[in-house]
Design a protein that fits this description.
By secondary structure, the chain is mainly alpha-helical. It has helices at about 5-10, 45-60, 65-75, 80-110, 120-130, 140-180, 200-215, 220-240, 245-260, 265, 285-295, 300-310, 320-335, 335-345, 345-360, 370-400, 430-435; strands at about 10, 15-20, 185, 190-195, 410-415, 420-425. Helix content is about 60%, strand content about 5%. It starts with a helix and ends in a 6-residue tail after the last helix.
Length: about 450
């Protein structure tokens, strides 16, 4: 997986599938030759063989949830921790490789980066960002950073697929064992338990023990007493295993621990206590620039702009959606989500385009044909930015649901305007936790 899958497969978040990249290296699989057998031994008939081969050909072009089910069934729950540990080690290695390269991109940024001015319009903003992100001489370093982010994101998404499959398997097993444990789902969707003195599994074995022991021909009653006690123990064990741990949450915690030793470099505390806008070189600003660059590679004229945006192989085929998964995860774990949403280059670009489009549409002296040409020149670029923004929001929503941040020490502002440090803000409860519960 470390040598082929993570480097050479790209993620499509919409279909929840990995597909092999056109630009990736194809490694010849070292497998033993399949023994030759007669065709009717494969699936039973020629028609079934043809149907199976067509189905196998379809599933061989991607890796998704069906393949993850096959991995879990083939390896088994007892051996999965070995693979999980190997993937977590791969994440740690890639994070350690990534951080020094992030430092190189930080050094290449200008000393001051302000907010994009609205009076410059879309064309002016594009030119300003092109001048700010002076990474032209560091194209190899930029590609290495994107590749490392892609592998980290692919590993995290692979863990999310595994977590999804394990939860579905647990749910299926729970539906089979719940009646024997005396558990049922209430009308409010909460798990409830019947009277503790009437647990079906324990009651069944207890009644069987009583009937057999009371019989005159029973020669060894102790074994039946042991079976009854084992039923009680099994009942407790099954109930404890109902709420299983999340593999994805463990992977996120592991990634957060790997980032902790680099926190001071990736998320510097502002000297004044206020949000640093112009001089900040935190990770969110690096990822913002990388995402902006990967969308269109700074096209300076409308013709090249349209060609680059429409031809996805020029900008997106090598990376896929894994880069956004890794970048947004690191931003979230570093506590920089709010900064990213405020100062991201693409977000600012979209706001400026919206304001400019509205202003132009309201101008009575504006030529409608020019307005149409303007939209045709930039609409593909803006739509690509909107898609990137939707993907970022999706990843952040998943992270907030699966890995809520702990209480963070922050700073507040006094009435005099001076910053007041070390103020702890408690996390807000989920809306679902505050809703009134229906009576059973």
């Amino acid at each position: 997986m470390q040598n082929d899958f993570f480097p050479n497969f790209i993620l499509c978040n919409t279909t929840q599938r990995f597909i092999r990249s056109v630009k990736g290296d194809r490694h010849a699989s070292q497998r033993a030759s399949v023994p030759s057998v007669k065709s009717y031994f494969l699936c039973g008939s020629q028609d079934l063989n043809a149907a199976y081969h067509n189905l196998a050909a379809m599933y061989s072009e991607f890796f998704g949830i069906p393949h993850m089910f096959a991995v879990v069934q083939l390896i088994g729950l007892r051996s999965l921790p070995w693979i999980i540990r190997a993937i977590l080690d791969h994440i740690a290695v890639k994070v350690n490789v990534l951080i020094p390269k992030i430092y190189g991109l930080q050094d290449a940024l200008p000393k001051s980066i302000g907010l994009l001015p609205f009076d410059g319009g879309v064309a002016g903003s594009q030119k300003i960002i092109h001048e700010l992100l002076t990474w032209g001489t560091k194209s190899e370093l930029k590609a290495e950073v994107l590749q490392s982010l892609k592998e980290v994101g692919s590993a995290l998404y692979w863990m999310s697929l595994l977590d999804l499959v394990l939860r579905e398997i647990d749910t299926t097993q729970f539906m089979q064992t719940a009646p024997w444990l005396g558990l049922f789902m209430g009308t409010d969707g909460q798990l409830k338990e019947v009277d503790s003195g009437n647990r079906p599994l324990v009651s069944l074995f207890s009644l069987a023990k009583t009937e057999i022991v009371s019989h005159a021909t029973c020669q060894n009653p102790n074994s039946f007493h042991i079976i009854s006690k084992q039923a009680e123990a099994a009942d407790l064990i099954y109930k404890k295993n109902i709420i299983s741990a999340s593999v994805l949450e463990y992977a996120l915690a592991f990634t957060s621990a790997a980032l902790d030793k680099h926190y001071s470099k990736l998320s510097a505390n502002p000297k004044t206590g206020f949000i640093d806008i112009t001089t900040s070189k935190d990770f969110y600003r690096i990822f913002s620039g990388l995402q902006f660059v990967s969308i269109h590679d700074f096209p300076l004229d409308n013709e090249y702009l349209e060609e680059t945006v429409l031809d996805s192989s020029k900008r997106h085929d090598s990376w896929g959606d894994s880069v956004a998964w890794a970048g947004c995860t690191i931003i979230y774990l570093l506590g920089q989500q709010l900064h990213f949403e405020l100062f991201d280059f693409s977000y600012q670009f979209l706001n400026i385009a919206e304001v400019e489009n509205a202003a132009i549409a309201q101008t009575l002296s504006f030529d409608r044909s020019k307005n149409s040409n303007f939209l045709q020149g930039y609409e593909s670029l803006l739509e690509a930015m909107r898609k990137a923004r939707r993907l970022n929001n999706h990843v952040f929503s998943m992270l907030r649901a699966r890995c809520p941040l702990e209480e963070k020490v922050a700073c507040a502002i006094k009435h005099s305007g001076a910053p007041q440090h070390r103020i702890t803000f408690v996390n807000t409860l989920s809306a679902f936790e505050t809703l009134p519960q229906k009576e059973a």
